[in-house]
Design a protein that fits this description.
single chain, 504 residues, mainly alpha, 26S proteasome non-ATPase regulatory subunit 5, ARM-type_fold
């Protein structure tokens, strides 16, 4: 922009003070900046300033306020990343605290853009007041604004948090939504380090969250449990919660939950919470909090269709690791009975439960999801246990025949889940041998007309590639498996014919 453009910009800004020319002036500024390079626009904006434009956010007519926000957003976009906050800090502070939603949204979008694009652009000592103003917005009624505030406040430099945590307490005197937003920020901060977790505790947030679990608001309780589980999966988080007897308090809630009218809604949340922790620390959790396992076994025995999906997911998640499998097996007959129940659900239940049961068993039997099991021989105990678990899934027909039939299921979601279990089974030598002995199973796998979805083709290819190097099959079968692998997962005779015709 040349000097004439600067003069025009100044002229338009001056006209903003005249009521009858205000809308036209805002549009003139918008048109002037829209098609000009950012560098030239930025120089003019800096020369003239934005104070008089910003004053228009206080106009009574919504359409004029919206237009003003549009012009200010355009001004900010023309500046280099972070310059709007750094050069117009007091203006941004004013906008963050404004009574109108669109104005607050404009300001927080700019702060968010700055923090995300240039995380070190706003040193804490100079801009801590901006961060505090943003922290207040975690309680904003506008979900878009509060969500941005949560994201920003959760990702600040550590020196900002003593002030942030102190100022954000205002949210705890508001509604459940505002408190949950504050708790989410606290959880995200606390998960970063033991020191920040201790700081959150000193400010009373953790104790407040635990106390609020006695609320009559079911959704509120579930949100708190979800946040606490995020903290509990951190090594310093679980240690802290154990030291503060927080897990004891939560376990006590489960004991008394049966008498709660909202038990069907609350139990899934509590199962997920302890399931997340037991996934990482199965032996410790089973020993100290047997109520988790008792609740899990009771859910399977009850046959409650509302609770079984979460119970299956929880059981499978705990049993994904080698330690989880061994810890579950150590519980004895109740676990064995639960495996048998899972087999029943695989054979005869709703589509959703069949799929979850199949995935549950694939986690219990497979070991490839445990990083500790990939670099060495599998624990002999796991080999024996998983073989027995699989055999107990069905007696008539045998489990492998049953799995073969489920793989043929016309519903792709069920068939895909069955292939996932088959993949887990063939991770063991005993599984390879069972497939080899089951009439028609290997022929079915080699038939490229079965399992047409991309996901099934990929899983099936992985299974066949594993079986192609197995000693469980005759050389003639290995030859067929190897040929399948060489052609890839998506080969078809039809595509070959098309390619040949195009070559001719």
């Amino acid at each position: 922009m040349g000097p004439s453009d600067t003069d025009r910009f100044r002229e338009f800004v001056q006209k903003l003070q005249q009521e009858d020319e205000r809308v036209a002036a805002l549009n003139d500024i918008k048109n002037l900046l829209t098609f000009k390079p950012a560098g030239e626009s930025a120089q003019v904006i800096r020369n003239v300033g934005i104070t008089k434009i910003l004053q228009c956010v206080n106009l009574p007519e919504k359409s004029q306020v919206d237009l003003t926000c549009e012009v200010l957003r355009l001004c900010f976009e023309k500046l280099a990343a972070g310059d709007a906050v750094k050069n117009y800090t007091s203006h941004i502070m004013y906008l963050l605290r404004h009574e109108k939603e669109c104005v607050r949204k404009l300001a927080i979008d700019e702060v968010y853009k700055t923090v995300v694009s240039t995380p070190d652009a706003l040193p804490v000592p100079q801009y801590v007041d901006v961060f505090v103003a943003v922290a207040h917005l975690v309680a904003d009624e506008n979900v878009g604004i509060s969500n941005k505030a949560v994201l920003i406040t959760s990702n600040l430099p550590a020196p900002a948090y003593p002030k942030i945590l102190d100022e954000m307490k205002i949210a705890l005197d508001l509604g459940s939504s505002s408190k949950c937003n504050a708790y989410e920020v606290v959880t995200n901060i606390s998960a970063k380090s033991p020191e920040l977790l201790a700081l959150s505790y000193e400010h009373g947030y953790i104790e407040h969250m635990l106390t609020e679990l006695s609320s009559n608001d079911v959704l509120y309780q579930l949100n708190i449990l979800e946040l606490l589980s995020r903290l509990a999966i951190k090594p310093h988080g679980i240690n802290f919660l154990v030291e503060q007897r927080a897990l004891d308090k939560i376990a006590e809630n489960i004991v008394g939950i049966k008498d709660n009218a909202f038990a069907p809604l609350l139990l899934p949340g509590y199962m997920k919470f302890f399931g997340c922790i037991a996934h990482l620390y199965p032996q410790e959790i089973f020993q100290k909090y047997p109520v988790l396992l008792n609740t899990l076994w009771e859910t399977f025995n009850s046959g409650d269709l509302n609770l079984l999906p979460v119970a299956l997911d929880t059981l499978g998640f705990i049993g994904t690791t080698i330690e989880g499998k061994l810890s579950l097996a150590a519980t004895g007959c109740k676990f064995t009975q639960t495996v048998q129940k899972t087999g029943e659900l695989m054979r005869a239940s709703t589509t959703d439960l069949k799929i979850r049961a199949l995935h549950c068993m694939s986690n219990l039997i497979g070991y490839d999801k445990d990083p500790t099991a990939r670099n060495g021989p599998i624990d002999h105990r796991v080999t024996l246990m998983t073989r027995e678990w699989f055999r107990s899934l069905s007696t008539t027909p045998e489990s492998t025949q049953m799995l073969h039939e489920i793989c043929k299921n016309p519903f792709p979601e069920i068939s895909e889940a069955a292939y996932t279990l088959l993949d887990a089974v063939t991770q063991h030598r005993w599984g390879e041998e069972l497939v080899a002995r089951t009439p028609g199973f290997i022929e079915y796998l080699l038939d490229r007309s079965t399992g047409q979805s991309k996901e099934i083709k990929e899983v099936k290819f992985g299974i066949i590639r594993r079986l192609s190097v197995s000693a469980a099959f005759e050389p003639s079968v290995v030859e067929k498996l190897t040929a399948y692998v060489q052609k890839g997962p998506f080969y078809s005779e039809h595509s070959l014919e098309v390619a040949m015709e195009e070559g001719e």
